[in-house]
Structure formats: C-alpha cells, structure tokens
Amino acid sequence: MKIITRDVPPRAAWALEQGGLHPLLARLFAARGITSTDELDDALARLIPPSQMWGAQDAARALADAMAANQAICIVADYDCDGATACAVGLRGLRLLGAPMGFDRVNYLVPDRVTDGYGLTPSISKRVKAQGADVLVTVDNGIASVDGVRAARELGLQVIVTDHHLPAIKDGEVVLPQDCIIVNPNQPGCTFESKSIAGVGVMFYVLLALRAELRERGVFTAQTQPKIDALLPLVALGTVADVVKLDANNRRLVAQGLKRVRAGAMPPGMTALFNVAARKPEAATGFDFGFALGPRLNAAGRLADMTLGIECLTTDDALRADELARTLDGINRERKAIEGDMRDQALQMAEEMFDESEEPPPALIVFDPDFHEGVVGIVASRLKDKLHRPTFVFAASGAEGKENELKGSGRSIAGFHLRDALDLVAKRHPGVLLRFGGHAMAAGCTIDEEHLETFEAALQQVAHEWLDAATLQRRMEADGALDTKYRRADLVDTLHKEVWGQGFAPPVFCEEVQVVSQRLVGEKHLALKLKHQGEPVDGIWFGHTEPLPARVKIAFRLDADEWQGQRRVRFLVEAAET
User: Fold this and answer.
1) How confident is the model over 485-506, as pLDDT tens digits?
2) Handedness of CA 23, 28, 31, 32 (dihedral sign)
3) What is the model's pTM?
4) Of 212, 198, 291, which is closest to residue 253 (Cα–Cα)?
5) Which residues does residue 530 pair with via DSSP β-bridges, in sequence order?
C-alpha cells in the first residue's frame, strides 16, 4: 500500500479561506478542485435547468398529455436502490403533480432479478400491457432495451425511457431504442453537464420539466404549484447508494436531501429505515445513505422482491413503513450471512490462483455452482478491495430454461474501464458474451457456462494489455497531516455535515504515529492506543487483524465517540503504508 498526499493548490485554499471557510475545510475543498465558495452554493436555484437535459421536455409534454387524457402510466423500475428510489420519486411525483387534475392512474412493475433479468424485456412489456397501461416509463434502465422497447411499441404502448447508463454498442456503433422518447444525459448529442447523475436524478428532472409544462398549461401557477422538493430525500438516497460521481450538481441534490432528512422532512419509510439501522436522522450523512439505508433496500432486490423496498418508500402509513423496514432489515441480515460465506469461499478460490510469492493475475474470475446470483456483485467488490484487481464473480442462472447460463457481476479498479473491457472481449470473441452492460467501475454480463474459460482468458488478456505496474499497485489518496488543534469533536461534526462521496472523497489524513498498544476486538477489529504528534488518541481499524509495527504511517478518518458523557475524537484507520 502506498499512501499519496493530495496536492493543495495554495491560491485556491487561500481564496476559499478568504471567502469565510474554516481553514481545514478550505484545504480539503481546494484539494478536490474547488476554487471558489460560489461552487459550494447548494441552493436549488443553482441546479442545472431541466431544459438542458435532452428529451426531458418531450417527456414532460407526453406525460402531461397522458394525464390530461386520464391514461394509465406504468413505471418499470430496476431492482437496486437507485431504481427503487427512482420509482418512488416517479410514483410520488406523478401523483403530486396530477392531483390538481384529479389524476392518479400510475402504477409500477419491477422485474425479478432471477426470472426476468435486467431492464425492459419483451416479456415485461407484455405484462405492462396486460395491466392496462397506456404509457410505459422506465427508470434507471431502458437505454439498452432495444427489443423491449420495440415489443412495447408493437403492443401500442407509448414509451418514455429515463436512464443514466451508457447506450448499447453494436459493431462499434451506438444503438438506441427506436420510436420512443429518451431522457438520458449519456445519449449521443445530450449536452447536459452532469453526466454522472443517477437514475433517480433523471426522473426528478423529468418531474421538474413536467411541472413547468403543467404550469404553462395553466394547471397551476408558480404560487400554487406542488412542491416536489419534498422528493429530494429520496433523490439523495438513490444518488449516494448508486455510487455515482458527486459532481457539483449531484452534490447539490444530495445536500438538499440531507437538509430535509436532518429536519425530519422525509417519507415515513426512510424514517423507519433510519430506526431499524439505529442511525440518527438529525445527524444524517451520506454514509447513512450508502451503508445503512441503501444496503437494506438493495437486499430486497438481491434476495427477495424489490416491491418491498418500493412500497416502504411510497407508503404514507407509518406503521406499515415500520413493518416493511423491519422486513428489509431481516432480509439484509440474511444477505450478510450469505455474502460472508460466499466471500470467504471466493477469496480462497482466488488466492489458489497464485502462490504467496506471486502477484495475483491482472484480472480475477471466480465461479461456483452454489453461489447466489443476488450477491455476486457485493462479493466481487470485496475481492476487488482485498486483492486490488478487476474482478468478476459468476453464479448459475436461476431462470427457468437458462440453467446453462452464468450471470456475472464485476467491479474494477481505477484505470480499467470495465464496460469497455467487456466490449473488447465481445469484439474479439463473438458469441461468448450473451449480454453485457455497465460503467467504468461496475458491469455485468451473461455467458454460457461452456464459455467461462474463454471469457476468463480473454478478460485477463485485456487486463494484461491495459494495466501497468503502477496501476496495479494499491494506492490511497490522503489529505496529509492533521494539526492537533483540529483534533476536536466539534470539527468532526463540521466535516460530517459536508457532502462527501464518490469523486469527492471524504477527508482521510495521513502521518506517522506511534503505536502504544493494540488488541483484537470481536475477533476481527484492531483497537489501538496511539500517540499522534506526542499526544494520546484512540484508534480502531475495522476488519483488520494483523498487528502494526511500533511506528507506522497510517491513513485515517476522524470520528467522535462518547464515553462517560464526554465526546472524544478517535482515528478510524483506513490503511497503513507497507
């Protein structure tokens, strides 16, 4: 592990401090590319206008026409947290905006991960039609569903695709669904600046455009229009949980959502999820979305039925929300148990691929017939973190008639674009990949079991060509030393109130410390007594059991715990330089 200190442009840090920021925040923001306090303005008025998202106004007109004609609208969701929150935003938003017109004919359908697979398929389109829908709206999926959209159109459904994923590529050309409205900042020709917006963010933008359209039609005025900012807690949750890059626009969406959550202004289902996770909404951070609420919603899509998660987010009955949140918490506990067993087995299989004296292969591919397909993505992420290699974990398909197929989920490291790698494998080995898609850091694919060895060799060849020694070395960026005057509980609170996440990393400091004592806690965590610049401080390294030397350079986050009524700062160790 190599710990690298981020550069801090001195002029930017000085300008931020002169703008009124705390010196520590000024330093942290400057290191993350912020040059003026204006960039930190999280007011809703600073959001990119919906008019800049190509297709949003077309979608707004189509939805307004459908509502005026009292046509039935069906939302087809994805089965992860982004898809669930996008669906909840769509359902709540359409009902809210339709209320002045007496419109409430909106329903949803979420595919089953095992039997249906990902995205809008022809069979899903048939089910939507059978429900009596006139308009089909996808959320967090659809951009690659060429066949599914065609089937829906042949059935007479109007189709609006809202998505944020990359389009399909065939023979080197982008292929888009035809004869439908597409709202996706990543479609060719769209100049919307925030390409990293999550699926829930795209749906929220469609609602912003729809509200403007209905205002123009005289349904309501600027003074009487429904306040859809009540949906921002859901937008923030889905944005953080989907681990999209927190660019300026996404940070504003998350900041606005967090403000409402801390004030208690959120759907009953989110309140209930905070309760079962034993987290405090009044002190909510992005961490709560990514590691407490998000996993409980995702567990439903992995092991059960995401309708549980969507109902939890859409019910206004607090008792029902509590019941659903407890169910989701139970499913998440089951997910953790399955994941733990799979992770241990997959790690053992991966480590058997190379000797202790050797480096791991440039990419890892692991499969076992007993793996659960709902958890392969999490296990791939754990292996990637442990061995610092692009990793795919495969499980046998549970879908009827597809027993010969393997479903794989991959996670990558910086410098290796996983979806592009799959595209190259598909070009070099036609027919090996039945389906694939995703992003730079996460992707999925389906293959026939007989092609597993071919896929493994092909992906490792691409990794061998693309990855050099520097990229394969584990590195962690940190923010340098922490002055002892900043080692205060109130500053921990100040840091926690800011929006951190993917692409806008939470503060991690680094320096050499003295290890006074160390002991194992709960058999898998290392509790530490440290001396930081000569002063005692407690530390803990979660999930780490190997002892540290007497003096060591560590990377650490700041946290505050309470002991006998006193709040004390402690170091959460993230890494040690070797």
Assistant:
1) 999 999 999 999 999 999 999 9
2) negative
3) 0.94
4) 198
5) 515, 537
